[in-house]
Specification:
mainly alpha
Length: 142
C-alpha cells in the first residue's frame, strides 16, 4: 500500500511540475522595480517571490524578507529571514537576517504579526503567467 501511495505522490509532483507557469524574468524584474518605486511593498514582494521560483538566489530571499517587513507582513518577513539562514548561512547578509529575526520577533510579541500581503490580481504584461490568466507574453495586449 505504501508503494501505491508513493507512486501517486510522484505522479502528483510530476503533473504539478509540468503545469508550472513559465515566468518572464525581465518582466518580473520590471514589476519589482516599478512596485518598489511606487512603495507598493506587497506587490514588490509578490514579484520577488516569483523571481525566486525561477532559480534560488539568496539576495532575492533577503529582499523578499525586507519587502515583507516594509509592508508590515512580519510573519512572512520572519519566514524569509529564517529560510535565508537555513539555506544560505554563509551568505553575506545572513548576520543581518539573524539580527532582523530578533527585531521582528520583538515587534510580533509586542504588536502582533501584522497584516498578510494580498496577492495582486493577475494582469497581462507583468511577466507572470498565473493561474486563471489567459495571457502574458511580455506585452499588455490580449
Amino acid at each position: 500500500m505504501q508503494t501505491v501511495g508513493a507512486v501517486m505522490l510522484l505522479a502528483l509532483f510530476a503533473s504539478s511540475a509540468q503545469a508550472a507557469p513559465a515566468h518572464d524574468k525581465a518582466g518580473l524584474q520590471r514589476e519589482v522595480a516599478a512596485a518598489a518605486a511606487a512603495r507598493d511593498w506587497c506587490r514588490a514582494l509578490h514579484y520577488t517571490e516569483l523571481l525566486e521560483t525561477l532559480g534560488h538566489e539568496p539576495r532575492l530571499v533577503f529582499n523578499a524578507a525586507e519587502l515583507a517587513r516594509a509592508a508590515g507582513d512580519l510573519a512572512t518577513a520572519r519566514s524569509f529571514y529564517q529560510a535565508l539562514i537555513d539555506r544560505d548561512p554563509g551568505y553575506a547578509k545572513a548576520p543581518l537576517a539573524r539580527q532582523a529575526i530578533g527585531e521582528v520577533d520583538a515587534h510580533i510579541d509586542a504588536n502582533g504579526p501584522g497584516a498578510r500581503c494580498a496577492v495582486p490580481p493577475p494582469r497581462c504584461g507583468d511577466g507572470a503567467v498565473e493561474v486563471k490568466e489567459v495571457c502574458d507574453d511580455g506585452n499588455t495586449e490580449g
